């Protein structure tokens, strides 16, 4: 890094601290997990890292900036805190550069360009780091949602229900099949009710996945009953020419449960 920039930073460190803190004060109200003291320490660490790396010139040498970005984002601080911090640092240094009376115009422009080039890899590193965290978070959340998206619930002896809500795509259909077959074995289900009341659209692909699931259950020696068929879904199934004759269907979960009790030779007896 140009020695003139380093000298400007060293000679104006206190002023830089003051201007830096003032510009980042706006983010104090955006974090509820940090005390004012903790937030001040975070600012100081951020500024010290920037000054350290501008002095040594290589931001990737020890990975301290990347680790700092990771820590900030994981503490639920907004990404804007980092971008604003970098832009504020650039602006403060540039203003101090152009205030120097001993610098010639051409020299000042060269310093500006060098500082600008120095900022680019930091911005790139920050964006890359935040993107990786975002992708990991989305992946974890997606996996968690998939785990909850197709539960098989035992409700009576040898009777289980799988309530389906929302759109069924290929990945979710695979999860449905896995949970269904594992649950049939685990709960020794003789009858499985697949409830599609909460499925907004049943097209050819969805029906194909459901038929596959029902066939797999039948191969395990159990009966699959499809329940929750609304009039509009019934009309769609007929118009698409989808054959659901291989396994029982009922319009409501209640009717499906009554049929399941009959198949398993069970009944609900009311207390007198």
Automatic annotation (TrEMBL):
Keyword Phosphoprotein applies: yes
Alphabetically ordered keywords of this record: Phosphoprotein
STAS domain: residues covered: 149-260
Domain of life (superkingdom): Bacteria
Pfam families assigned: Rsbr_N, STAS
Gene3D superfamilies: Globins (1.10.490.10), STAS domain (3.30.750.24)
SUPFAM superfamilies in alphabetical order: SpoIIaa-like
Membrane-spanning intervals of the chain: none
Name of the protein this chain belongs to: STAS domain-containing protein
Phylogenetic lineage: Bacteria, Bacillati, Bacillota, Bacilli, Bacillales
């Amino acid at each position: 890094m140009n020695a003139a920039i380093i000298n400007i930073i060293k000679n104006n460190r206190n002023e830089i601290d003051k201007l830096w803190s003032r510009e980042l004060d706006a983010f104090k109200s955006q974090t509820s997990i940090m005390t004012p003291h903790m937030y001040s320490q975070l600012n100081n660490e951020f500024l010290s890292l920037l000054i350290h790396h501008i002095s040594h010139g290589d931001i990737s040498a020890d990975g301290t900036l990347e680790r700092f970005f990771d820590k900030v984002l994981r503490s639920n601080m907004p990404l804007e805190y980092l971008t604003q911090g970098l832009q504020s640092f650039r602006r403060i240094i540039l203003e101090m550069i152009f205030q120097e009376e001993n610098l010639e115009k051409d020299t000042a422009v060269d310093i500006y360009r060098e500082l600008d080039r120095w900022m680019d890899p930091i911005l790139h590193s920050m964006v890359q780091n935040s993107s990786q965290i975002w992708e990991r978070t989305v992946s974890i959340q997606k996996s968690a949602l998939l785990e909850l998206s197709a539960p098989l619930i035992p409700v009576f002896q040898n009777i289980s229900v799988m309530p389906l809500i929302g759109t069924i795509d290929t990945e979710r259909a695979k999860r449905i099949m896995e949970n269904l077959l594992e649950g049939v074995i685990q709960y020794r289900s003789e009858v499985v009710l697949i409830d599609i009341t909460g499925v907004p659209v049943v097209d050819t692909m969805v029906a194909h996945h459901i038929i596959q699931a029902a066939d797999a259950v039948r191969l395990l020696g159990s009966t699959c009953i499809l329940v929750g068929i609304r009039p509009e879904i019934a009309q769609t199934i007929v118009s698409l020419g989808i054959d659901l004759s291989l396994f029982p269907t009922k319009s409501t979960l209640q009717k499906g449960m009554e049929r399941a009790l009959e198949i398993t030779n069970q009944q609900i007896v009311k207390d007198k």
